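Lab meeting tomorrow. Look over both lines:
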Amino acid sequence: MSHFFHEAKAAIGDFVHEVESEVSKVAGISDGEKHSHTHIGEACHALHINGNENRFGSFAPPRTGHDIKWHIDGCAYMWAVSVALEEAQESIWILDWWLTPELYLRRPPSANEEYRIDRMLLAAAERGVKVNIIIYKEVTKVLTLCSEHTKKALEVHPNISVFRHPDHVPSGVHVESELITDLKNFSLRDFDLAQLPKEGIEALYGARNDVILYWAHHEKLCLVDSKVAFMGGLDLCFGRWDVNQHPIADAHPSDLDNILFPGQDFNNARVYDFQDVANWQENKLDRTKYSRMGWSDLSMSLTGPVVEDLRAHFVQRWNFIFREKYDTQDTRYTALSLIPNDIPDGYYNEDGTNVGSSTEGAIYDTFRRAGTFFGRSGGNSGYGDDQNGVSIQLVRSCTEWSNGVATEHSIANAYIEVIQRSQHFIYIENQFFITACSDEQHPVENKIGAAIADRIIRAYQNGEQYKVIVCMPAVPAFAGDLHADDALGTRAIMEYQYNSICRGGNSIMETVANAGVPDPKDYIRFYNLRNYDRLNDNGTMARTEEESGVSYESARKEHDDIVGAGYGGYGEETGARRGQENYEYDQYQRAAPRSQEHDTVAACYLEDGPSITSIPWNGSPEAELDAFVTEELYIHTKLLIADDRVVICGSANLNDRSQLGTHDSEIAIVIEDTETVDSYMNGREFRAAKYATSLRRQLFRKHLGMIAPQDWTRPDANYMPINKDPNDYDWGSDYDIAVQDVFSPEFTDLWNGRARTNTEVFSKVFHAIPADNVRNWDDYQEFYEQYFVSPSDKDTKEEDKEPARYLYGHVVKEEFPGGVEEVKEELSRVKGMLVEMPLLFMDGVDFAKEGLSFNALTETIYT
């Protein structure tokens, strides 16, 4: 077998493009067909797209007359969803990658038991509301989403129907092993892909006999009463609720009822993934020793004509799945239909399918007449002259397996065209950044990177000021030490991302440099987010444990069972529940002081927050030194903002999985607000779109720490859905003015200066990785691995290795002979969460392991 792998590795480069050709035939793509998302400037074959006369090749046209609102992070978004669910009278339709029945939409759970989502949906069903939910049916060998539990837990009333889709074979490994067997039966030297069984080619691409192995339903959508829509990056599941200051500590020794993240909602995907039901007892994250991982995300609420487009998309999906697997089952399952009087322009049939393509819509007509999307370079024209509110167009990625329709990749088309026609800057915030500038970057196909490189080169050649700012995670949210064998997937994604950005010969920065740009960083820069906190495992906890006679952890487990925060139907199995005596919890709470202590210090890195040097600690200095922790702040947003005028936001990541249309299913919207505000661009007066610039400014201020801490118990206007209140933003404040012009020297110094300072502090205090001084595995060992071991790896380390000196994410003490006070002085320099992305990290090694088991069988999964 090793000889076979060696031969396959040597031959794979010769036949990989033939594989791609055969895969295209399997997918039903005609020879010579070009795609605007994979070949810049060339449109798709007319048979490939339905609704191809619409802008971006979407099934839906642009529409005007909308109201829309941003909800930054899970706290405000989930509160808004809870308001809509509580008031629902007719229907609730939900699309989700993962939906956790035990999720609390308002916190703390102890004071908001009626706002657990399964209880809210049941209450709606009992009012006569019809609830229809579609969730992704996971590959059980790969993911622990437990969609079967979600279906069973929610379908407790005949008015609630849950579809799981798609179906899978028990294990993708089975099909992969078949492909290896097929390959072994051929001579690679004289290999003819035409002879390779169709099943083998399909397995390579993720599908076999109409069974989808690797691709997922990734949309996040909630439609209430056909009037208000919620969509974006946030699933209604564990790990997503968070506030703007992102506390990563959740130990509450003075009052267990202050717990915000019960059960496995206290999660750090870099340490442990959400655990399998059968093994939950062994793998819980100890919140007295480790932090959670903060979750930075964005969703929206909106009203207006596009809601009917979203409804049509949902009805298409629902009826496709119904016909495929549910029409002979429980009578609760029925097909859906649109209401004829509500269908805009007669654009859809009642079953959600398109009547035909259309060029209706004032904004669209304006663009058609102008012959441009954004107007002429350097001017303010072309952004939509219609004054009928916000223009929104629904775009999506879907195909036969996901929606029963011809392949559509209008999200990718929108990204490319918006980038190409941008005049001043683009801001990208995304969970992934995997893209290509050249066909040489196979297997990556999407050419968003080529559009970025082309726009930068054009700006340089024309002597224009132009800027690209990208925020993305430092490390994908997968558990384990990067050096471990089972971290191959994590390293593969990171290598693809670095090859998209700055390595491999065809990356964006290399393409730009090869075109004569002296320093690509003058035009494009990449950033991550990171934060710190302090675990409140102090003297109060020890004293309360002694007085009560029970441990904090045993009392905490009963608390979590009382609020019902179990996973997959299982909790801590303490038997505790509301309305009975719960000894451990009751004893601890009687002895606890019930005071508000500093259970988190997250506000200390906000501009107007207290200094960490002034926060008291009710314990020894040594214990406080051990209590500081750090983690990357995970960016899950899927956002592009161009010129403070156009926004693309939804569920789609910047990678092939989300952009190609044939892989994961996605939705997004292109937003153009005709209401403008006075602003500045490159020192000149500028009319910015109100929605786009307020969203961009709020995000920048959050990353820089220039916001107030969010109080999860006191909702403001931004917690309400759009049909209640618009966004509340403090126009003209000092912090607003500081971020209005992305070209001003003051902003540039502020943004880059804070990123640099924060990076230096986290590197010194915690030896945070990735880091620019870690160029190879020897550097990794010296800077990081000799100090730390991830809890998820502690049982797999080699026996002859020295034990880790510190717990994962904690302070490297030998850097601070002055003890905890010296650490706090250093941490007091941190403002906001912005850090530099280390583009030199591991650039001296082949970061992802080579071999057929990675390259040929699974590479498309990671892109």
Summary: Residues 2-32+170-212 form one domain.
